[in-house]
């Protein structure tokens, strides 16, 4: 079984790529953002650590972590942001490695994918068998973000600036999917790479 990381800048089209893979290949796919939500649920070690770091007022009436309150606290304080990341990132990693182990034992899928914008920064390069970079020209990404999410140019500038450069993404990846033109073109690149794994 291949353990594959999928990363790329905002607006590169990672979701469309993953939807195609999910439909056409025997695989399990995990999105790091969704896993992060999972590991922060009440009763988890990560939940307890977050409440300890940020205080009980970070919880909503149901006793769950209020995402908006948490964001307000951590993005106003770099020290708190680092403390939270130091709790959440390892918890996400442990969760994924446990699922990977279960998938290996079950033997039902041949491919195991994890997707996140920060895979390289979080050290997944040492864990995965292959790192894939979903690339799209900056002009294309900007257009997509304006159309699909209604982002302003200023907001897009901020997000792109905060992410790795194209050079860094490429340097740390084993395979690049160019998703600048049609999705069909991107799908062909995937099919060539995964020709031995088709459903």
Task: Describe, in plain words, how this protein is organized in 3D.
It contains 9 helices and 5 strands; from the N terminus they run E-H-E-H-H-H-H-E-E-H-H-H-E-H. It is α/β, with parallel strands linked by helices and 199 residues long. A 5-stranded parallel beta sheet has the order 2-3-1-4-5, sandwiched between helices. The longest helix is centred in the middle third of the chain and has 29 residues, at 78-106.
* Radius of gyration over all CA atoms, rounded: 18 Å
User: What is the helical fraction, as a range of percent?
Assistant: 40-55%
Strand count = 5
Strand order, main sheet: write it out: 2-3-1-4-5
Largest sheet data: 5 strands, parallel
Considering the chains and any ligands shown, give keywords for the structure.
53% helix; alpha/beta; 5-stranded parallel beta sheet; 5 strands; 9 helices; 199 residues
Secondary structure layout:
Blueprint: E1 2-7, H1 14-24, E2 27-31, H2 32-39, H3 45-54, H4 67-75, H5 78-106, E3 111-115, E4 130-135, H6 138-149, H7 153-162, H8 166-171, E5 175-178, H9 183-193
Parallel strand pairs: 1-3, 1-4, 2-3, 4-5
